[in-house]
Write a sequence for this structure.
């Protein structure tokens, strides 16, 4: 079975799994305990936090561990209400957010906050259109860095810089789930206040995520308990998962340049193999992340091609894995037709994928085009 | 104090000379349901089956299992006492006190099938009533609309005291109506149809038509889950999963699109009958009916004309217990039996690839038969049957 669904989740690296197991069977102390096993567990957390901070080039104290990126987004977005004087103030976001952000923003909208969603149809002028919306009533901007469905990269650096110039008091949150550990991010230079990311997208286990909170940023604390994670996420830390997260982050950071080269070679090869096939449309825009490729196979519904490829030994995704069988509408919001969205599949790479696997995958897609009944 | 379950038979009690066959089947089914819960003694007398535990067991679980056995009109949890009236009174006070303490009114009903017991039924009622009035100061007698009815049954093997009576699953014991094959799709209707026919005594097997890659693994899992939910009533169900994709592709290629739905239905029936013949030839079942969840006019394949075309390939009777029901009635039954939430999971969308935009609602049998001439039906059936997976599904 060849796995091309790495934007949904990834295989846990063996050194990460080994350390997690050790944390469950040998070093299983509670980081809050006073005895030496507690100290040992605390050191494991510190080490993992340092590895994560190194990836973002920030301070360890700016990282808190959560259970997943969705929890991080919730803490960030609802926490940012501390920055709002009254309801009616404005949030700026995009029309291509992951459900974790989109649903939080919908909830805030229900509570009376104004929401402006910047469409991604005119990608060239995206920053300009967004900055035009920033005013003194804007208290929060929330953006996805790399779109999970088609790899579109939003210019977060430029947007953050311009937005802060226009309104220095607003908070900027970025969903970096699909870019964390995959492309360089330097938070010492970025004017970003909050960033959410996840462990299982970078070869750590499911059940651990993180939130970057820039030093000095004031957000509401909404959970109460034993004071762990600076009271943003109180409760005994998931030491095994966090430990594995640290290992996975360290390994991925060290190999980031090589990984990126590998992704570009895979993507270029895939593009060259399908470019002459007039019934395959590329939905990933130029300049998008090299590890996510979204294509539509004319007439063949996503789920059918997905299951056909599965029967032939290839795992891909239809649209966003978070959306299950429901269509997210992201591709339509970028100007593509419903039929094209209905027929889209997402191919997302890991460093384990090879050129020959791409060859086999494309052959299987072509077989599917010949065999499967067209319905859209 | 010993607690038992008293089970009242439903329409079995109206049977004639073959009544014992039904009763024996019912007891066998009850035994099957309770076999993992402990050892029990079963006694059948005067239209009542008494289930008495012979060892420590969780009577709440026993009661829950009994509530899903078809053929039971009602059941009660009762305390068993020796046939000594002083002891009966003491047991009644002890066993019913939690209930009686929260009631304001009560009455006593007695039934003395053991005529050797010294007190007659009216005397039992009067003396027990007096005793309970003395013991529970909150109670007064109301013979018309009491909050609690204290029931005393004096039977051959002992006296039984109870107050609450629960409705049973009704119907006839599973298996006494023969063996039937349910065509189950994963939607709302077919599990309800299966449940209704199982209630009338059919022992079910189930056939599901999967069309991978047009339908997903999740759609199959969903159907298996639905069958598993039926097993709450039906014990285990033999499940046949037919790989239908190749056959459907052939129909799609070679037959008119507007007849696709009806031809698919006919081929499903043919494949089902082929599987039934195979099952029957193995000797451990004798399937004599097909069960479907059709409701007249609900969709194009369920019109009278379509049903006529489907039936013409069936040599076995096709039971369609939902044929005269509205969707809302079916949904409410699905909720009652616990299949609705699973049925509405959205995993069967892919199959719509084979659904024509404008299916013919009044197909002519001759047109359908002509259209099918383009298919190598026997070969396709053989292939589909050969690729069919067979396994047992349990609750």
């Amino acid at each position: 079975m060849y796995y091309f669904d790495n934007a949904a989740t990834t295989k846990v690296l063996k050194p990460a799994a080994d350390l997690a197991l050790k944390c469950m069977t040998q070093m299983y102390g509670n980081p809050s305990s006073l005895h030496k096993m507690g100290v040992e567990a605390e050191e494991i957390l510190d080490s993992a936090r340092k590895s994560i901070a190194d990836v973002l080039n920030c301070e360890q104290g700016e990282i808190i561990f959560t259970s997943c990126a969705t929890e991080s987004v919730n803490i960030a977005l609802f926490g940012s209400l501390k920055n709002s004087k009254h309801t009616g103030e404005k949030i700026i976001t995009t029309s291509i957010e992951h459900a974790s952000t989109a649903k939080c923003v919908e909830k805030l909208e229900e509570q009376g906050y104004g929401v402006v969603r910047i469409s991604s149809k005119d990608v060239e002028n995206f920053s300009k259109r967004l900055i035009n919306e920033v005013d003194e009533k804007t208290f929060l901007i929330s953006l996805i860095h790399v779109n999970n469905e088609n790899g579109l990269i939003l210019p977060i650096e430029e947007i953050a810089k311009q937005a802060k110039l226009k309104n220095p008091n607003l908070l900027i949150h970025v969903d970096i789930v699909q870019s964390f550990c995959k492309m360089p991010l330097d938070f010492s230079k970025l004017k970003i206040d909050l960033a959410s990311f996840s462990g299982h997208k970078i070869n750590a286990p499911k059940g651990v995520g993180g939130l970057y909170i820039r030093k000095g940023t004031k957000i509401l604390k909404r959970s109460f308990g034993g004071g762990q994670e600076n009271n943003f996420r109180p409760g005994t830390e998931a030491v095994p998962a966090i430990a594995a997260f640290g290992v996975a982050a360290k390994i991925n950071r060290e190999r980031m340049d090589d990984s990126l080269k590998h992704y570009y070679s895979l993507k270029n090869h895939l593009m060259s193999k399908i470019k002459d096939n007039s019934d395959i449309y590329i939905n990933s825009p130029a300049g998008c992340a090299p590890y996510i490729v979204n294509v539509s196979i004319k007439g063949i519904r996503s789920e059918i091609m997905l299951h056909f490829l599965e029967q032939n030994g290839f795992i891909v995704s239809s649209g966003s894995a978070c959306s299950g069988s429901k269509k997210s509408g992201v591709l339509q919001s970028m100007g593509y037709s419903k039929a094209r969205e209905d027929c889209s599949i997402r191919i997302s790479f890991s460093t384990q994928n090879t050129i020959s696997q791409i060859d086999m995958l494309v052959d299987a897609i072509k077989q599917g085009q010949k065999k499967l009944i067209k319905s859209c | 104090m010993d607690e038992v379950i008293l089970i009242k038979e439903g329409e079995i009690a109206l049977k004639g000379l073959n009544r014992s066959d039904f009763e024996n089947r019912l007891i066998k089914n009850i035994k099957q349901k309770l076999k993992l819960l402990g050892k029990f003694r079963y006694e059948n007398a005067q239209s009542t089956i008494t289930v008495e535990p012979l060892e420590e067991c969780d009577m709440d679980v026993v009661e829950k299992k009994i509530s899903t056995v078809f053929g039971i009109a009602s059941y009660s949890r009762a305390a068993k006492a020796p046939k000594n009236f002083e002891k009966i009174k003491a047991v009644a006070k002890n066993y019913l006190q939690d209930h009686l303490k929260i009631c304001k009114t009560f009455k006593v009903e007695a039934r003395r099938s053991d005529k050797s017991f010294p007190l007659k039924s009216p005397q039992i009622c009067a003396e027990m009533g007096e005793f309970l009035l003395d013991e529970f100061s909150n109670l007064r007698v109301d013979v018309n609309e009491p909050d609690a009815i204290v029931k005393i049954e004096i039977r051959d093997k002992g006296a039984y005291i109870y107050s609450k009576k629960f409705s049973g699953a009704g119907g006839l014991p599973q298996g006494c109506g023969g063996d039937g094959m349910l065509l189950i799709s994963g939607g709302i209707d077919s599990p309800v149809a299966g449940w209704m026919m199982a209630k009338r005594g059919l022992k079910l097997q189930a056939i599901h038509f999967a069309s991978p890659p047009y339908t997903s693994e999740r759609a199959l899992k969903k159907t298996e889950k639905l069958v598993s939910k039926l097993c709450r009533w039906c014990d285990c169900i033999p499940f046949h999963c037919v790989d239908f994709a190749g056959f459907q592709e052939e129909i799609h290629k070679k037959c008119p699109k507007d007849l696709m739905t009806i031809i698919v239905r006919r081929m499903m029936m043919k494949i089902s009958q082929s599987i039934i013949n195979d099952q029957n030839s193995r000797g451990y079942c004798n399937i004599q009916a097909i069960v479907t969840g059709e409701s007249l006019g609900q969709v194009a394949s369920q019109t009278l004309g379509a049903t006529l075309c489907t039936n013409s390939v069936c040599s076995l009777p096709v039971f369609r217990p939902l044929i005269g029901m509205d969707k809302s009635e079916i949904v409410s039954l699905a909720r009652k039996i616990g299949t609705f939430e699973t049925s509405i999971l959205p995993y069967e969308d892919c199959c719509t690839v084979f659904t024509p935009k404008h299916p013919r609602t009044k197909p002519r049998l001759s047109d359908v038969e002509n259209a099918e001439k383009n298919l190598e039906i026997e070969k396709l059936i053989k292939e589909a049957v050969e690729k069919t997976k067979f396994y047992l599904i349990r609750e």
Notes: Residues 182 and 260 of chain A are 7 Å apart (CA to CA). The interface with chain B takes residues 301, 303-308, 310-311, 325-326, 372-373, 375 of chain A (CB under 8 Å). The first helix of chain A runs from residue 14 to 25. Chain A has a mean pLDDT of 94.
